[in-house]
Write a structure and sequence with these properties.
Elements lengths: L1 H9 L9 H19 L21 H20 L2 H11 L5 H8 L3 H27 L1
Helix pairs in contact: 1-2, 2-5, 3-6, 4-6, 5-6
């Protein structure tokens, strides 16, 4: 994050007054990809252990069901091609607009919309296929 903020500060003169959030997210994205390329041979991600940080309230049955559902969704997301996954996560988790995503990824807005449609369709198909197989 520090490297991204330094890059944003260094290149602030190139900011043309568009949406600052999208501009900064693009810098963070590019910084992350640069970092990943440099360290590809190392373990890049440490899993968040939810058992170490439990939320008070839900029953053990609810927690187990939620973990199973999260695992299913995570596996389904991992099966998506990288571009589909990236665009879907930017839209659904980050709340970016189509235009923001198009600017960040460097593709036309129409391509973002069609890619997002196909990503959602594949994700839904993957999740419903797994649910149908589980019921049978």
């Amino acid at each position: 994050m520090q490297e991204a903020m330094l890059r944003a500060y260094r290149f602030f003169d190139r900011f043309q007054g568009q949406d600052a959030r999208a501009w900064l997210l693009q810098i963070v994205r590019n910084t992350c990809y640069s970092w990943l390329k440099k360290r590809r041979s190392f373990e890049l991600v440490t899993e968040f252990d939810e058992e170490l940080h439990p939320r008070p309230g839900p029953t053990p049955e609810t927690v187990t069901a939620q973990k199973q559902e999260q695992c299913r969704v995570k596996q389904a997301l991992e099966l998506l091609p990288a571009r589909f996954r990236e665009i879907l996560l930017l839209r659904e988790l980050e709340g970016c607009s189509y235009k923001e995503i198009a600017d960040m990824v460097g593709i036309p807005t129409g391509t973002v919309m069609s890619t997002l449609f196909r990503a959602r369709e594949r994700l839904q198909r993957s999740l419903t296929t797994h649910a149908a197989a589980k019921e049978a």
